[in-house]
Amino acid sequence: MNDARTAQPAVPADLDGWLARLEAAHPTAIDLGLERVAAVGRRLGVLDPTARVITVGGTNGKGSVARTLEGVLNGLGVATALYTSPHFQRFNERMRIDGAEVSDAALIEALGRVEQARSEAGVSLTYFEHTTLAAFDLFGRSGAAVWILEVGLGGRLDAVNTVDADIAVVTRIARDHAEFLGDDLEVIAAEKAGIFRSGRPAVIGQPDAPAALRRIALEVGAGLVEAGDAFTWGEGDDGLWWWRCAGHHWCGLPAPGVSGRAARGNVATALAALVQLPEGTGADPEAVARILGRIRVPGRLERIGTGSLEWLLDVAHNADGAEELARVLDDGAASGWTRAVFAVASRKDAGALIDALSGRIDAWYLPQLDEPDMRHADELARELAAAGEPVVHCGDDVAATLAVLEEQARPGDRVVVFGSFRTVAAVQAQKGWG
Prior knowledge:
This protein is an alpha/beta fold. The protein folds into 2 domains: about 15-290, CATH 3.40.1190.10; about 300-430, Mur ligase, C-terminal domain (Protein-Tyrosine Phosphatase, Chain A), CATH 3.90.190. The protein has 16 helices and 17 strands. The radius of gyration is 22 Å and the shape is globular.
């Protein structure tokens, strides 16, 4: 167990001050394990909520499934608390109660309560661990009937997993965070399956999921709800689609607000989790269809039309996500050029992202984000040139890069923004879309 630092700065007065303090509070930014966070959580009394808990893990699709569950449950009149990460513009985006972001004041109070318990426990916490406990504290005080918790990294050793899931969901499994999880899909899946609990539903949203998910679910005695077996979905008429699960057969569902073929799988997975709850089992399919038509997931294949240009914002930052983005581009060709704004974190496999989009981009624009762990734009330019991809602008900040792009763009062009949450967030901020 790590010792807490003996000299602590004064308690911050604002949220930005708190977040800056938490970033420096632990020796490493990511330190997987449950011992420290559980010790503090027990002192806070937040690890055994009276609410029902849906924990959502996986590599890609977690955010979409979590936001879909929130939207449908809210639409059905169920009080929810949603925890997701990372955020785009405001830290408050990570914690929502009944669809509304928590206030700075509420967050500051919760962070202070966690700090008091942390000090008493004599441990240090990472930024994510501290803020996760703050979310649990706020959610417990809110009276929300259902908590929806998105796993940050992995599953078994993630801070979110200190609370037992009543329903555990694992979306698609892919290679990502290799420095923590390795690059073997079965090993990655085993880490993700660490959120499964005995006697409680384990929803697996990938029809061809690694065998480790099913094996571990059976070993722990979880109730399997598998895509392709317990639930299925398919095309209907007039662009609508259908979904079946455990005696439910819902037809006439609208196209998801997110583009791409994976989007229906994510919604289908969310519905499979929904019907494990009493409110979902008795839900009116027509009401659910109406609610689904209103749900939007920011930054996930999100389309924004501005004048003569179409923008497609996607947080794709691994090969699986980039391949889905490529399918979306193939399914809906632009009348003009497709221009890409691309920046990626240093630890990510930029080559895999470039390969997935090969031949689909007419002009690449490479801003240099002012963050230390982002790949240098010149390095990306060299990788793109080696792959035969056309780089037309490189190395300026986001504002200057977008100015060049918009000067060069023509009516009918499409602009794709991808590579990282931070890439999308930077463009959102510059365009005023946050």
